[in-house]
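Course assignment 3, question 2. Fill in each field.
Student: A.L.
Task: Predict the tertiary structure for the chain below.
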Amino acid sequence: MSQSSGQLISSPSVADADGERAARHSLRQQIAKLEREISAIVAEGFPHIPATAPDGRADAAPRLLGLGELERSRDSLAARAQQLRRLAADRAEHERRSHERLRAMKLEPGRYKFARLPVRDLGQGGCGVWEVRPRLGLIGMLAGWWQLKLSSGCPLPRGSRRARGPG
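Answer field:
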């Protein structure tokens, strides 16, 4: 800094360094916000929305990123967040349509003969399947008696107990 007529004047390099520091800080905050948003979208939509590894180089040594690299990182995270938002919206629409179909299957099972709807499509975990079946087997099918049933869930493991292990 130089002093001229009683005023302090900062040199251009100090002003540039302060500007770069502020830009780095802003970019790091934007990157952190995007990473939190991506994490929240993946956590809420898992397993239907895949969690992918970051696009960073695994073999790179620790270093201070330049402004250009920070901007590229921010831009790639913004694109990934937009892609995940679109996937989450598509999944929510799929689940909404599945809920509507289940509601219709409950109201008029005869219109949905042998229709199947996995609970996975409803956003629920497990292996269950909603299925429209004839009541009382063949007699019910010929008489037009249809009912909606939920399967018991995941199949049991196959094989003898000894081959499957203890417990």
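Instructor remarks: DSSP finds four helices and five strands in the chain. The CA atoms of residues 38 and 81 lie 6 Å apart.
Grade: pending
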